[in-house]
Amino acid sequence: MMEQQVEKKLKTGTTTVGMIAKDTVILAAERKATMGYLVASAHAEKIHQVDDKMAMTIAGMVGDAQALIRYIKAELRLYKLQEERQISMESASTLIANILYSRRFYPYYVQLIVGGYDTEPRLFSLSPDGSAMPEKFFSTGSGSPVAFGVLENEFKEGMEPEKAAALAVRAVRAATKRDIASGGSGIDAVMLTSSGYRKLSDAQVEKMLA
Questions:
Q1: Which tens digits make up the pLDDT trace of 103-135?
Q2: Which of 14, 15, 16, 57 is an active site residue?
Q3: pLDDT tens, position by position, 132-158
Q4: 57 is catalytic
Q5: Partners of residue 55 on adjacent β-strands
Q6: Which fold has domain 2-209?
Q7: Boundaries of every domain in the chain
Q8: The whole model's pTM is what?
Q9: Strand residues in 22-159 grouped as ranges (E)
Q10: Burial class of residue 8, CB neighbours in 10 A (0-12, 13-18, 19+)
């Protein structure tokens, strides 16, 4: 019973979004982390760069997510040292899925979106059981049902990156209006292209919302 109570309190309320645009992957997330009814942080980082052209969003227990990020970064560095090239997105998603699957009986309590660029933009959703699914757009966390409603209505394949980023940001904002566990001080958004990783400034995000 005590373990269940601790687990419940340490779970974070989250909304993250990922989508494929023209030659670009867009990731967006809000910044609130909760412990039950307490806002543990209004500035939580939920998008993490794990390689030169790859990043992931996290939803779930913060400790599990942070440990997993350290694990994944180390494995990707080892791959680059051994192979002298960047790992493909499909191989990276398989690696992460294998890590999650190996712990399926004592799982990482996380749900991930992994996006990046190898020969083209790619996006995968990953669950604690080790499943990995290619996606064109996806959302995770407690606010995802609201975000999915926005994405299902407005997403189009081959969107221009700026329009896609604005849509991702609007989807996250819509979730923060209805999901009490999502919010915080602003929204983070990044673009991943053949040139690498680029985080949008708060001013750019606010302009998209305006």
A1: 999 999 999 999 999 999 999 999 999 999 999
A2: 14
A3: 999 999 999 999 999 999 999 999 999
A4: no
A5: 49, 115
A6: Glutamine Phosphoribosylpyrophosphate, subunit 1, domain 1 (3.60.20)
A7: 2-209
A8: 0.93
A9: 24-30, 33-35, 38-41, 47-51, 54-60, 110-117, 121-126, 132-134, 137-140
A10: exposed
